[in-house]
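haha ok so turns out i had the wrong file open the whole time. this is the CORRECT one, sorry everyone. sequence first:
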Amino acid sequence: MRRDSVRPLRRGLAVGKGLEDRRVVFSLGVIVLISLMAIFAPGPGPCLIERSLAAPTLSAPFGFDVQGCNYLPQVMLGARTSILIGLAVTLLASTIGIVLGGVSGFFGGWVDTIVSRATDIVFSVPAIVGALLLFGFLDNRSVLLVIGVLTFFSWPPVVSLVRGAVIETRESAFVESAVALGASKARVLFRHVIPNSLRPLFVFLPPFAASIISMEAILSFVGAGLQLPTVSWGLLLENLGRDLYQAPHLLIPGFFLAALVYALVLLGDVYQSSVPQG
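then structure:
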């Protein structure tokens, strides 16, 4: 009787593991494919107006835009821009969040108060709203400027996440042992506490990067983000207008954007489900 009851459980665990593995393969496959597009993106080729909005062909599988330019290189260049901004903002926001969250959670007291109040102030402004307000006063919106503005409004959730993990980790036995052996507070924080407090961050970062990529695309789509001659998925979608009815292939950047965002969110979800609770 007991063996019969165990078999469905084992079968269910095997099915769940198989689904998880498939989701990982799908997510990584999409991310690797789009990353390769970004790495090997060619320069824009010649544009011939007589090919304006022409349908996809064997030599131009993504068709042509309104100016008669091959759409494939533009989509690949857009992937490069989106991934660059997503990675840069994620890396910078994570670095700021790890340092401030680690110091705040480990030392507490007035340090924690100052960091927490600064975090609350920036956190009170939605990132996309703050970016819209700032970009409204700026004319030359380059990739570096977009990275800087998005980073400024994106670090607070990382600080809150790391701070909570550090507060929990600092009470661990191995931290007390390091302190008892005479290790300095800085050494304890950066060699012992922070490295053992980053697991929640690994769950958080893939969907965080997805939100950054989406935010840049939205800002560019509404005309408040990147500007030409930079190529991004948001800018390509911004120029659709009435041409979409005549050339539906112009929506291709939107499909790649959705696929990348979904793959990142799915990867974070899979990692979260694989982390032991408690």
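Residues 2-274 form a domain with the MetI-like fold fold (CATH 1.10.3720.10).
again sry for the mixup
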